[in-house]
Design goal:
38% strand, 4-stranded antiparallel beta sheet, 121 residues, 22% helix, 3 helices, alpha+beta, 9 strands
Length: 121
């Protein structure tokens, strides 16, 4: 009985490896030339460049927009790829479920985005 309890505790502590190791957020840095353009992630305003923002992990891609006065809107896509830390879940299947629910099974392909704004003088 004691071995069963210890094994259960070990399994619970090692589940969700991607979530445990990489957390619930990804820090993404946004810069632009000229500085001061507004940054939107999935249509939500996050601040003005230069800025580093913690973005909640998700399974899908996110749309990034840089906007500034009379400048053209610059659009990009934050793509997510498989998070290799999740491989450690091979020891316990609930870890895959936890990483899927928290989005930690994926990580951003790039963590820095730069926009060269084309402005009308």
């Amino acid at each position: 009985m004691r071995l069963l309890i210890i094994t259960t505790i070990i399994l619970l502590l090692t589940t969700g490896c991607g979530t445990v190791i990489t957390g619930f957020y990804d820090e993404i840095t946004f810069t632009s030339e000229p500085e001061g353009s507004s940054v939107y992630v999935d249509h939500d305003y996050v601040g003005k460049t230069p800025i580093a923002v913690n973005i909640y992990k998700e399974l899908g891609s996110s749309k990034i927009e840089f906007k500034m006065g009379s400048c053209d809107t610059n659009e990009m896509v934050l793509r997510r790829v498989f998070n290799r830390w999740s491989i450690l879940n091979l020891t316990a299947w609930p870890g895959w479920l936890i990483d899927l629910m928290t989005g930690a099974i994926k990580k951003p392909k790039y963590t820095t985005f730069h926009a060269d704004m084309e402005c009308i003088s």
